[in-house]
Specification:
Blueprint lengths: L9 E5 L3 E6 L15 H13 L8 E2 L8 E7 L2 H13 L3 E9 L7 E9 L2 E5 L7 E13 L2 E8 L6 H7 L24 E9 L6 E5 L8 H10 L3
Parallel strand pairs: 4-10
Antiparallel strand pairs: 1-2, 2-4, 3-4, 5-9, 5-10, 6-7, 6-8, 8-9, 10-11
């Protein structure tokens, strides 16, 4: 039997231009073949109900989180906001901080730069210059060891599909619960230990710098949760 999904979104912030939510692990960012509740559809329903809007509701999906991961997502309530947020993602002025629970212990301060290509729902590393390959770059900010595991704080310089998952897996440190990319340890039976903890960006119309953070999921080990929330300033 398929596990029941949450059917409401945890809203962190809302204004005339933005909807910021805390995506639970296991919920897709947009409709997929499963038909399970997804962020985009639930977000539109929330706006429609809250403001009694007639007809179709606009809500722009300007980035995504993998279904089995969790954390902060921003959605655009107007086409102008969607365009300006997308521009910030392209220009790399948006700061994305992730927490990941890994098998093994990587080097603190390391910078990973690879070339990735996606084939048949999987991502793999390929040589630079491979047709269709995209550059992926991340930096390890902090590493906290928990026996054979480690909690890492990661900043993304790019936002490629499955980037964190494959870049760590290829170096012998798969994410806990990520059986697609060689993990041997279970998290909660269906999700993986990857959390988009902090998202910082400029408001699309006011230009104020905004920062949103959300707690590490309760499915992670308790001591890891506590350490992760401290890293996020929560």
């Amino acid at each position: 039997m398929r596990p029941r999904q949450r059917k409401e979104l945890a809203v962190l912030h809302e204004d005339n231009h933005l909807l910021i939510i805390d995506k639970p692990a296991g919920m897709p960012s947009q409709p997929d073949r499963t038909g399970d509740p997804d962020v985009l559809t639930l977000g539109k329903a929330l706006i429609k109900e809250r403001y009694n809007k007639p007809g179709a509701v606009f809500l722009g999906l300007v980035h995504r989180l993998d279904r089995p991961s969790s954390g902060v997502m921003v959605l655009a309530r107007t086409s102008k906001s969607a365009s300006r947020l997308s521009e910030q993602f392209r220009d790399k002025t948006i700061r994305k901080t992730y927490l990941a629970l890994l098998e093994g212990v990587p080097e603190e301060g390391a910078v990973y730069q690879d070339w990735l290509i996606k084939e048949y729902e999987r991502v793999k590393l390929v040589p630079q210059g491979t047709k269709g390959a995209k550059k992926a770059s991340l930096k390890i900010i902090k590493v906290i060891r928990f026996g054979a595991l480690s909690l890492v704080q990661v900043e993304l310089e790019t936002g490629r599909s499955h980037q964190i998952r494959i870049q760590f897996s290829e170096r012998g440190h798969p994410l806990v619960g990520d059986f697609r990319y060689r993990s041997r340890r279970e998290l909660d039976g269906r999700n993986l230990a990857l959390h988009a903890g902090v998202l910082e960006f400029n408001h699309p119309t006011k230009k104020d710098r905004l920062r949103f953070a959300t707690l590490v999921p309760s499915t992670w080990p308790e001591d890891v949760q506590e350490a992760g929330n401290r890293l996020l300033g929560m």
